[in-house]
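Please review the protein record below. Tell me whether the encoded fold seems credible here:
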Amino acid sequence: MTDLTHFDEHGASRMVDVGAKEITHRMARAESFVVMQTETLKLIIDRRVAKGDVLEVARLAGIMATKRTADLIPLCHPLGIDGVDVNLQPVDATTIRIEATVRVHGRTGVEMEALTAVSVAALTIYDMCKAVDRGMTLGPTRLLEKSGGKSGHFKA
């Protein structure tokens, strides 16, 4: 395992200086899941949740969260995101799968942006449906793939 780059030689936190790194096309994909009661998923699919269209609001929340990752994760660099896609699909009678793909031309990767997107989308589903199902569970959440940069391609 390589050294932890967010600490200096004295153990103090720092934002890594990426100024000398080459600008490359970078991409990251992440996923998360929300598990709920069958009746809750039916309400979502039929667009009968009182707060609105759960999947579209969660998609927008994930996109917005991508752009705010540096405000939420202390040592992340603010990035000019090239694009983000957030997809939400039921995978069975009780589970919604969320996948985000984030792209940038930059000096640092977008793994945290993709993970933030799916996490906030999952939280949004919980928030919009908690009145009918407080027992929902979130996760697992994980990085599926990343490309670009010195560390190369990763696929789970």
Observations:
- The CA atoms of residues 89 and 97 lie 5 Å apart.
- The mean pLDDT is 93.
